[in-house]
Write a structure and sequence with these properties.
about 180 residues, mainly alpha, Multidrug-efflux Transporter Regulator, Chain: A, Domain 2, 2 domains, three-stranded antiparallel sheet, 6 helices, 3 strands, about 55% helix, flat
């Protein structure tokens, strides 16, 4: 039997306080720093934010924010003279919506359709036919999201059952020497 080489342990470091012990949030911050971050739902002061600040606010990497921009899902509201992207509260809200859709397995195209649907409904001034069509599309997304959540809940139940089984095995077999 061929032995597999042991991979070196990954060393995580909080992007804020640089702690390397304990649990980490997906943002790369330790749980202590993550809980102390004040994340507004929109840019309350109406200011424009640079991409780094936006990435930190929503818990994404710069690369991911750029990917969503390249995909046309979120666009900067402006650029500085130096070409740096500037995002408004609407872009931040879109990124948060994308982050909610991603774990449910929605494609970029589905995200684009939902974002457009919500934007058109929010803008108002639609004909009755257009409004009814958009509301129907929104209802389809609601149904799809509900079904995906049910699937994930079922998978979670299976995973939790597996963990329970393993914990039972640990209690049953204990630390017996081999």
């Amino acid at each position: 039997m061929v032995e597999k080489p042991e991979l070196p342990a990954v060393k995580w470091r909080c992007t804020v306080c640089e702690r390397s012990d304990g649990a980490f949030a997906p943002s790369g911050r330790c749980l202590s720093c993550e809980s102390s971050v004040d994340i507004p739902t929109t840019a309350e002061d109406g200011s424009l934010r640079q991409i780094g600040e936006v990435a930190n606010l929503v818990g994404l990497s710069l690369r991911t924010v750029r990917h969503y921009e390249d995909s046309g899902l979120v666009l900067p509201a402006a650029r500085t003279q130096g070409g740096f992207r500037l995002y408004d509260g609407q872009a931040i809200d879109r990124l948060r919506l994308i982050m909610k859709m991603k774990p449910l397995g929605f494609t970029l195209e589905e995200m684009r359709v939902l974002i457009e649907t919500r934007s058109r409904l929010a803008a108002g001034g639609l004909s009755a036919t257009d409004e009814q069509e958009l509301q129907g599309r929104l209802a389809m997304f609601t149904t799809a999201a509900t079904e995906k959540v049910a699937q994930l809940a079922e998978q979670l139940g299976i995973a939790e059952s597996f963990v329970t089984q393993l914990q039972d095995d640990v209690r049953r077999f204990g630390d017996t020497p081999t």
